[in-house]
Amino acid sequence: MRELIPSGSLRGMLLPPTYGRHVTDNTAFTVLSVEIWATGLVVNIQMASEDGPEPSIILQDHFGTEYSLRNSAKLGSRNLQVFTPSVPPGTRSLTVRSADDAEARPVVTFAVPLLAVQDAPAASDDNGYPAPPELRRPA
Questions:
Q1: Which of 62, 65, 84, 81 lies closest to 73, judged by CA?
Q2: CB 58, CB 134: distance < 8 Å
Q3: Among the four 27, 84, 87, 111, which has the fewest Cβ within 10 Å?
């Protein structure tokens, strides 16, 4: 299971502001969360049943970043889908869309908070104390 999780540090977790449920003739699922890792994203999905098909989803942000599905795993009625890259600096929103029909309807949109720069070299002030983390500003 560890090979499924992106490398680097976990930078945040997005929880849906509304009930992210999607139901069509082809599929039924609920988006539970999105994990933001330094190198990718993990979408945690609850499927309607264990024997149902894995949901086909698309990720979209306001920058138009191309997110690619890299891996997927079914754990009973739970499905984890791994996408790359991670959200770029300044990302304000991330939308999960269903790709099971031609419309690619939105399922849920997450507000992405400002993220502290985790991979930057440690800085210090004139007295040797660590500087506060730099926050990424919205574009």
A1: 81
A2: no
A3: 111
